[in-house]
Amino acid sequence: MVLVESNIPPLAQTYNKILTNWSTKIVTIDETKELKSENEHEHGALLENLPVIDLVGLTSEDEGERAECAAEIARASSEWGFFQVVNHGINHKLLRDMRREQIELFNAPFSKKSSCGLLNNSYRWGSPTAVSPDHFSWSEAFHIPLTKIFRPNLLRRVSLSKLLHARMEVLVEYAGEMQKLAKLLAGVLIENLGQKKEEFEEMISCDESTCFLRLNHYPRCRVSTAAELMHGLVPHTDSDFLTILHQDQVGGLQLLKQSQWISVHPRKDALIVNIGDLFQAWSNDVYKSVEHKVIANPNMERFSVAYFLCPSYDSMIGACKEPSIYRNFTFGEYRSQVQQDSKLIGHKIGLPRFLR
Ligand SMILES: O=C(O)CCC(=O)C(=O)O
Ligand SMILES: [Fe+2]
Known about the structure:
Elements: H1 11-18, E1 26-28, E2 52-54, H2 63-79, E3 82-86, H3 92-107, H4 110-115, H5 118-121, E4 123-125, E5 140-145, H6 146-150, H7 162-192, H8 197-203, E6 212-218, E7 223-225, E8 231-236, E9 242-247, E10 253-257, E11 260-263, E12 271-275, H9 277-282, E13 292-295, E14 302-309, E15 316-317, E16 329-330, H10 331-345
Parallel strand pairs: 2-3
Antiparallel strand pairs: 1-7, 3-12, 4-5, 5-6, 6-14, 8-13, 9-12, 9-14, 10-11, 10-13, 15-16
Helix pairs in contact: 2-7, 3-7
Bound molecules: 2-oxoglutaric acid and fe (ii) ion.
């Protein structure tokens, strides 16, 4: 008999170890049990239409159309903190190629992903800081700084993975295109608050040294605990200026709006944009960094790729106008605080830590 090595990380075993102090355990859902309908897995979330913005307006020759499109982006960033963009200029073949490479990468056996230094040890799985069932994430990810993508010679032990060389081309092109789009959208949001893009960039540089791509994989999840339904990714806000997400057609992403979870329904032609903590701070809460999560799916695995627009660690994140709601902080300081909180209490506190 040939034993096929699993490509799925040992999530259930790891979480069960944490649960030894709890009066619960991870239980496997019987394979023969009838599968719930798709909608039931949305766990009571509302279906509301997330704004869809056609970015063609930004390049229109008509000044009024350009202004209207910019206003829509700003409105969605304030009211929702999330929106979808269509006609975003990113080639659909590139999106498909990226997905194909991503799937192949995650298909590698777990032992290889976790021990071969693939993509400079950028592989993460589960929730390393989890201390209770509500911290468990049923997912794995490659968390890749752009420096490593644009200068692949910095990738250690590339020779170990032949598969990587071909893959790099797609990653480089994808990261470059996402960076352009993210900067275009950030520029619109900066100018909407009466600030000059060039002046912003002089103070806060978002370059390849700190931006990163995160390739996410949510394996099919046939377990739960008595206490908690399993998350694919636990509720969080992003610690960046903005994020651009390309999700597949499975669904499961939800965002919080007025204390109610709302499902983001996949749309083939759209990318999802969300505001991160740094834009919320810089804009004095005009733009909202909202909590979002991914629910685990017992029927299907899911893939997504997120691009995070981040400044250099020494960039001072002040506010665009005084008086500011948050005290000044550098991005490096913000990140250290998030890491410290996650280690000590199992989750991030984020912006409330920096209120004046
Ligand atoms: O996979 C998703 O839909 C969301 C991913 C996400 O929120 C993240 O990587 O920060
Ligand atoms: Fe996120």
